[in-house]
């Protein structure tokens, strides 16, 4: 896997750009309706996964699956023959993006990479939250 | 990379063991004592937990975005690291 710092920087930069775009789409301060709050929440969450997927690009099956999903393309065909159910991999394949189309070995390799990216993404989001406390400069 | 179509359970078992260090609390447990099935189960749980964290952090960030309190300088510093 790439140098984790390079990946983290890439993830951070894409996510922040996505957040900036969202910021300008939001109407200013008066309290939003519950529906509007939910819409904003979903938009940030979508931005998180979108920036993860685009930062990794087509190099990984899980990121390709996310990119396909974002573009509204059909899922890759479910792979019936090669999933080893003895160790419970049939559950894991439903959790990892694109897992349903992978054989057991690919699934396990993809899972390892996916975990690392998710962990990095979570760290970035926490850092943004914690760093934006006292100052009032607008993003 | 070509591989034969029959992948042995031993090979899968080995790949699963490689996931173990990625899981939280994995250093406090002796490697040989954790079964492959347990590792897969804990991996599933960990992934679900991470998805939930992304969801929760997204909600909090959406509030922060709307209120405008995200500092441009700290973000540039974050990117520089």
Automatic annotation (TrEMBL), chain A:
<protein>
    <submittedName>
        <fullName>Transcription factor IBH1-like</fullName>
    </submittedName>
</protein>
<dbReference type="GO" id="GO:0005634">
    <property type="term" value="C:nucleus"/>
</dbReference>
<keyword id="KW-0804">Transcription</keyword>
<keyword id="KW-0805">Transcription regulation</keyword>
<dbReference type="InterPro" id="IPR059002">
    <property type="entry name" value="IBH1_N"/>
</dbReference>
<dbReference type="InterPro" id="IPR044660">
    <property type="entry name" value="IBH1-like"/>
</dbReference>
<dbReference type="Pfam" id="PF26576">
    <property type="entry name" value="IBH1_N"/>
</dbReference>
<keyword id="KW-0539">Nucleus</keyword>
<dbReference type="InterPro" id="IPR036638">
    <property type="entry name" value="HLH_DNA-bd_sf"/>
</dbReference>
<feature type="domain" description="IBH1-like N-terminal">
    <location>
        <begin position="5"/>
        <end position="72"/>
    </location>
</feature>
TrEMBL record, chain B:
<keyword id="KW-0341">Growth regulation</keyword>
<dbReference type="InterPro" id="IPR036638">
    <property type="entry name" value="HLH_DNA-bd_sf"/>
</dbReference>
<dbReference type="InterPro" id="IPR044172">
    <property type="entry name" value="ILI2-like"/>
</dbReference>
<dbReference type="InterPro" id="IPR044293">
    <property type="entry name" value="PRE"/>
</dbReference>
<dbReference type="InterPro" id="IPR011598">
    <property type="entry name" value="bHLH_dom"/>
</dbReference>
<dbReference type="Pfam" id="PF23174">
    <property type="entry name" value="bHLH_ILI"/>
</dbReference>
<dbReference type="GO" id="GO:0005634">
    <property type="term" value="C:nucleus"/>
</dbReference>
<keyword id="KW-0539">Nucleus</keyword>
<keyword id="KW-0805">Transcription regulation</keyword>
<feature type="domain" description="BHLH">
    <location>
        <begin position="1"/>
        <end position="50"/>
    </location>
</feature>
<protein>
    <submittedName>
        <fullName>Transcription factor ILI5-like</fullName>
    </submittedName>
</protein>
<keyword id="KW-0804">Transcription</keyword>
């Amino acid at each position: 896997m790439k140098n984790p710092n390079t990946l983290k920087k890439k993830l951070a930069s894409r996510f922040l750009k996505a957040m900036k775009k969202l910021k300008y789409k939001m109407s200013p301060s008066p309290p939003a309706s519950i529906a509007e709050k939910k819409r904003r929440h979903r938009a940030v969450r979508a931005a998180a996964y979108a920036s993860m997927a685009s930062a990794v690009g087509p190099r990984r099956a899980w990121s390709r699956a996310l990119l396909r999903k974002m573009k509204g393309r059909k899922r890759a065909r479910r792979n019936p023959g090669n999933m080893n159910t003895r160790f419970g991999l049939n559950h894991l394949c439903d959790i990892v993006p694109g897992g349903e189309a992978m054989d057991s070995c690919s699934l396990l390799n993809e899972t390892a990479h996916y975990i690392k990216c998710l962990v990095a993404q979570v760290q970035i989001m926490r850092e943004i939250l914690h760093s934006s406390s006292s100052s009032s400069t607008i993003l | 990379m070509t591989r034969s179509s029959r992948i042995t359970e031993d090979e899968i078992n080995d790949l699963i063991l490689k996931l173990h260090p990625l899981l939280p609390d994995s250093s406090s447990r002796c490697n040989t004592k954790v079964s492959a099935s347990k590792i897969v189960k804990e991996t599933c749980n960990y992934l679900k937990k991470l998805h939930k964290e992304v969801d929760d952090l997204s909600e909090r960030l959406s509030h922060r975005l709307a209120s405008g309190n995200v500092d441009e300088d700290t973000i540039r510093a974050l990117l520089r690291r």
